[in-house]
Specification:
By secondary structure, this protein is an alpha/beta fold. Helix content is 42%, strand content 13%. The strands form four sheets. It has a seven-stranded mixed beta sheet with strand order 2-8-7-6-5-3-4, sandwiched between helices. Strands 11-14-13 form a three-stranded antiparallel beta sheet. Strand 9 and strand 10 form a beta hairpin. Helix 3 crosses helix 12, helix 5 packs across helix 6 and helix 14 runs parallel beside helix 16. It is globular and about 65 Å long. The mean pLDDT is 96.
């Protein structure tokens, strides 16, 4: 039996100017669920927005307070970022990725959203013939909205049927056309929680070098592949990264999930040293500067977007990076609660007839879920499933909005609470009985 009637959901959506619930954006689903909750007093199982559900790291919070008390709030931060954060980032990358990226190449940004936006701007301006971004989907819908803003085009393909040895046959013909400026993906993946593996990243990196394409690797969920013992400073195994296989990369490291620091909008764009120092005549002509990639990226692109990252927040992020390198923060264990939640939620869904459209990696095996997971239900498209679940008090987003060709939804564990598990079980039992 449905908790929210079709009439109530349809009327509420109409009042909120949501024209097509089946293809609703994250923001539209969020406000629809919130409004239905407020009007009825009935709680939703909120699986829509990926906002952290754990307390912000205390070391970062205290470092910010101390910085404010020292008076940093009265000064603009340096456009390239404060030395403390840049140096801490260099050490963090060495400790947890075993990569050497100099501090000068590490640019603080207001979240990975700003990092990708600025990266899209500059990478699509390097070569007049290369004006497109290639999305290895499923992915973060906002990034395509960013390309709409700057007027850049894109291509995309769903990785689902092109894993492992099949990836090169799909990827190379796209790059060979000569109009792709950059490739973007997240690893672990939002929304599917699959993880591109070393051989796949080697393929991407080698082809990026061959066709002179820049790879934008979004590491928002850094080391959160809980199947492996990641996150021990200066100790293997290290997370897979394309940076081992090409010099054409920008890594985006966010504090939002690994330190639950989302409200402070702090991330770092880490540019390959060789890319950082490349000269591009097109940049020199456009910006009337030397055409130096790193300088243009910092001073003529990112500074124009955000004017720098909040001064105190940079000190907070620097302190967390330093503490992690020293072993004083185990950010993987701190976030493992998401893995526990995912297992409990997936056990309930699977018991009631749901399956996972993205369920395994080529060699690492079963995708267990963490911050995100995917679900499908027999006989339903993703849009139909997302819309139908709203009537049972469960909010999610359709995979179709993420560039996926698979029929299903993305679920998020961040808002799950202990008292909601029996409610979820009861509602999915009703869903199964009705379908």
């Amino acid at each position: 039996m449905k908790i929210f009637s079709e009439e109530l959901v349809a009327k509420t959506a109409e009042e909120l100017h949501i024209t097509d619930i089946s293809n609703a954006t994250i923001g539209e689903v969020l406000i629809l669920a919130q409004t239905l909750e407020q009007r009825t007093g009935i709680p939703f199982i909120r699986m829509d927005q990926g906002s952290p559900g754990l307390p912000a790291n205390m070391i970062g919070r205290q470092a910010e307070k101390d910085a404010i008390d020292r008076g940093v709030g009265q000064h603009y931060p340096a456009a390239a970022g404060i030395p403390e954060l840049k140096n801490a980032t260099e050490k963090f990358i060495k400790a947890f990725l075993n990569l050497d990226i100099p501090a000068a190449c590490c640019l603080p940004t207001t979240g990975s959203v700003a990092a990708s936006f600025g990266s899209f701007v500059i990478t699509t301006q390097l070569d007049p013939k290369k004006n497109k971004v290639l999305f290895i989907d499923p992915g973060f819908p906002i990034q395509k909205s960013q390309l709409r803003i700057i007027g850049a085009d894109w291509e995309e393909f769903d990785i689902h049927d092109h894993r492992g040895d099949r990836l090169q046959a799909k990827l190379e013909p796209i790059l060979a056309k000569g109009d792709i400026a950059a490739i973007v993906y997240s690893n672990p993946n939002n929304p599917a929680w699959i993880c591109l593996e070393e051989d796949e990243l080697k393929t991407i990196g080698q082809l990026a070098t061959k066709y002179d394409v820049i790879v934008l690797e979004d590491l928002a969920y850094f080391c959160m592949d809980y199947r492996r013992q990641l996150g021990h400073p200066f100790e293997p195994p290290y997370p897979p990264t394309v940076a081992r296989y090409t010099d054409n990369y920008i890594l985006m490291l966010s504090s939002s999930k690994i330190f639950s620091y989302a409200g402070q909008r702090a991330a770092v764009a880490c540019v390959s040293p060789k890319l950082f120092d490349r000269q591009y005549p097109t940049l020199a002509e456009r910006y009337h500067d030397a055409g130096h990639f790193g300088t243009t990226f910092i001073a003529s692109v990112m500074y124009m977007i955000t004017s720098g990252v909040t001064h105190s927040t940079q000190f907070g992020m620097a302190a967390m990076y330093e503490a992690a390198v020293k072993g004083e923060i185990d950010f993987v264990e701190d976030t493992r609660e998401y893995q526990i939640r995912a297992k409990r939620m997936l056990d309930i869904f699977k018991k009631h007839g749901f399956t996972m459209p993205y369920d395994a990696d080529p060699t690492e095996g079963s995708v267990e879920g963490g911050f995100f997971f995917t679900l499908s239900y027999p006989g339903m498209t993703g849009g139909e499933l997302m819309k139908e679940l709203l009537h049972y008090g469960v909010s999610a987003i359709s995979l179709s909005t993420t560039g996926s060709d698979q029929q299903g939804i993305r679920g998020c564990t961040s808002r799950m609470r202990e008292e909601l598990y029996p409610i979820l079980d009861e509602r999915m039992k009703a869903f199964k009985n009705d379908h």
